[in-house]
Amino acid sequence: MSSNRPVRVAVVGAGPAGIYASDILSRSGLDVSIDLIERLPAPFGLVRYGVAPDHPRIKQIIVALHKVLERGDIRLLCNVDYGTDLTLEDVRRHYDAVIFATGAIKDAELGIPGIDLDGSYGAADFVSWYDGHPDVPRTWPLTAQHVAVLGAGNVALDVARVLAKHADDLLPTEVPANVYEGLKASPVTDVHVFARRGPAQAKFSSLELRELGHVPDVDVVVYPEDFDFDEGSVAAINSSNQTKQVVKTLTDWTLKDPDEMTASRRIHLHFLHRPVEVLGEDGKVVGLRTERTALAGDGSVAGTGQLHDWDVQAVYRAVGYFGSPLPDIPFDHASGVISNREGRVVGADGEPVPGVYTTGWIKRGPVGLIGHTKSDASETIRHLVEDAGDLDAPGNPFLSATEPDPAAVVDALAGRGVEAIEWSGWELLDAYERQLGEPHGRERVKVVPREDMIRIALARAAAEA
Description:
Elements (H helix, E strand, L loop, with lengths): L6 E6 L3 H11 L5 E6 L7 H5 L6 H4 L1 H10 L3 E4 L10 H7 L2 E4 L5 E2 L12 E3 H8 L15 E5 L3 H11 L12 H8 L5 E5 L11 H7 L5 E5 L8 H9 L1 H14 L10 E6 L2 E9 L2 E12 L5 E10 L3 E4 L3 E2 L8 E2 L4 E2 L1 E2 L2 E3 L5 E7 L2 H4 L7 H17 L17 H10 L7 H15 L12 H15 L1
Parallel strand pairs: 1-2, 1-4, 2-3, 4-20, 6-14, 7-8, 7-14, 8-10, 9-10
Antiparallel strand pairs: 5-15, 11-12, 12-13, 16-17, 18-19, 19-20
């Protein structure tokens, strides 16, 4: 090979999708040098900032991701923002190919009247707050006694559970101090979760749903009149063990004796209720209006015209995530994904953009569990390796970097005042957070402010250098 150097690849986004892609690429047989670029001061993306603190089982995915990065063959560059600190032109100068794995972190829109009232929130923003994301405010307006959560997926359950759970029951977790204090002062007594379809169409995982029934001093209330099953529902139950378990759990809850429900807080699960309007007064949420729906035979629903008003003072929409466009990268604004075919980014003419790829939720939309990103990354990496082909062939889109030395991109960033946090810096921040938790028997206590994260990772790293 006349180039006499590895193919330089940048992977933008150090969440599960980016780490899986980097790992698969590193073991692909291609002679490659990989930089994993992350805009936040810490890696691990939605596992760190999108999984509720009282779900340590899911957060254990970080252990596997940690093992990939601690090998040392993939260089981590945190605190570097693509589009601000590095442009596409910069990326092309220092790398031969780039994979975007930036995920989907915005809330999907819900186009109903009143959705923009004070007291109406996106679930993604709330999740970022309770997970200590450095880019959101330290406080959250928890003033409502009765709350509505719109959606029938695991995020809706997470939001409902965190709102209803007593703050002291979160203390063994990594919940940040400001989040604990905010939840401790919350006056909430009732959280209502609304699903527009029936129990057999709910997107909850059976494990998440069962966990809801074990939250201390919180009763789960399910209403028999919300239960209906059409042919499509029966088919769904018979074809999926997950659906069967969800329906069984929900059905068991309908048989609870109301006299045995003595908890101080309640989570109400409502099915066949379609939100049609958030009700307001003086610009603030004072209620939610839903329309009763009816199953149409195939699992879909139609409105019945029967309306119901609910007395709530806050509304959280958990109707899905949506991707954000990236500078200079083709984007499908309707779907919220980077324009691509099987991970190859394509331009307006439908032709692949040389050396530019994507994986994860920003490639295919926010569907599937974290583990699904592995097969997704494999597809993208397969195409990248295919495209690398004969590295000496004329017109090959790779080996286009004019400054491929790994030190060059770090020097260029430093020249702009950008201090990249490498793996050693993350190890210092990780150790610091664990030390904060140790006196209290907790695995860690998250450092929340971005400036503190950077100071701990960089200042102490510099002192040890």
